[in-house]
């Protein structure tokens, strides 16, 4: 399966596959929520297919094993947890897989997901194999962007960037999946990533976030009622809500500066305006910094009490 916004890139790969010119180490750069895992798997399945070079046939033994997630020549490594590094042991396992012979008398594919989570030691352990993999061994690496990838890894790969669709297309694609119209701000709150936007709405987070915006906007105005309700709403959905609230405050700052042409919040403009006209710029700036720090802190240390920390942050709005 390929998503509509992946077609162009996919056709490029298909051509290279037909001409047997696909590089042995493909690096796919794509945003979270753009379906990069799906695209990487489609490429893997196609490389492994026994009937066709450029389009997985879905009927051969290899395709069936792939769909059953039990293909013996398809290997995946990724961080055990989001935000964690890929362990060196996992990388060494890749090296062993690379030297194995194929179980199905065909190719082997090694997929490294979130390759930007390869630490220096892990990267060093795989460099040689990436540069000159044994015959019949295809590497596919995925990452969000080049920023956090080690240059030594990048230089050994053939880079491909999946361009995000424009937000109007994302909006109409999500609407076609859900058979309902959606807010443009749902797309923007998810950085324009189609699958992330879809999940945002399917999980009901869009509605809960709407309620949070309402409660938060009421709270920041005197007499500051509902601090514990706001904190409970934040903790119910975890740290993602802190990121969203940060966007709300940044929009309010933009509103204060008159930079209203690109606000994330399109349908919640009234809330942006209410916050912008209530809270002084200096305090808004400070609270954006604080919530971003809080977000980082909570992402790093999972054992912390989010509700308590959010209450502490919210207290910063009282008695301005
Ligand atoms: Zn097949």
UniProtKB/TrEMBL annotation:
GO terms for biological process: DNA-templated DNA replication. SUPFAM superfamilies: P-loop containing nucleoside triphosphate hydrolases, post-AAA+ oligomerization domain-like. It catalyses: DNA(n) + a 2'-deoxyribonucleoside 5'-triphosphate = DNA(n+1) + diphosphate. Transmembrane segments: none annotated. It holds the Pfam family DNA_pol3_delta2. PANTHER family: DNA POLYMERASE III SUBUNIT DELTA, REPLICATION FACTOR C / DNA POLYMERASE III GAMMA-TAU SUBUNIT. This is DNA polymerase III subunit delta'. It comes from Photobacterium aquimaris.
């Amino acid at each position: 399966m390929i998503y509509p916004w992946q077609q162009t890139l996919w056709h490029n790969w298909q051509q290279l596959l037909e001409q047997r010119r696909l590089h042995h180490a493909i690096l796919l750069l794509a945003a979270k929520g753009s379906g990069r895992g799906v695209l990487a798997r489609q490429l893997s399945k196609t490389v492994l297919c026994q009937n066709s070079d450029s389009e997985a046939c879905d009927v051969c033994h290899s395709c069936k094993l792939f769909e059953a997630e039990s293909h013996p020549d398809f290997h995946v490594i990724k961080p055990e947890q989001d935000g964690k590094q890929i362990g060196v042991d996992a990388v060494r396992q890749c090296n062993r897989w690379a030297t194995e012979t194929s179980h199905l008398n065909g190719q082997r594919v090694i997929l490294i997901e979130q390759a930007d989570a390869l630490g220096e030691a892990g990267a060093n352990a795989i460099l040689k194999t990436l540069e000159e993999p044994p015959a019949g061994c295809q590497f596919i690496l995925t990452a969000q962007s080049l920023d956090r990838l080690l240059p030594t890894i990048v230089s050994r790969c053939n880079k491909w960037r999946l361009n995000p669709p424009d937000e109007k297309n994302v909006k109409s694609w999500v609407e076609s999946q859900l058979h309902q119209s959606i807010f443009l701000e749902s797309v923007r709150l998810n950085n324009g990533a189609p699958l992330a936007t879809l999940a945002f709405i399917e999980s009901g987070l869009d509605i809960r976030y709407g309620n949070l915006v309402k409660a938060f906007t009421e709270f920041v105005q005197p007499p500051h009622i509902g601090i514990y309700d706001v904190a409970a709403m934040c903790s119910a959905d975890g740290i993602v809500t802190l990121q969203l609230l940060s966007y709300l405050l940044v929009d309010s700052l933009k509103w204060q500066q008159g930079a209203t042409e690109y606000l994330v919040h399109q349908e919640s403009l009234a809330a942006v305006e209410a916050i912008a006209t209530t809270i002084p710029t200096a305090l808004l700036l400070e609270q954006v910094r604080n919530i971003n720090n809080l977000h980082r802190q909570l992402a790093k240390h999972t054992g912390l009490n989010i509700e308590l920390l959010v209450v502490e942050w919210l207290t910063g709005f009282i008695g301005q």
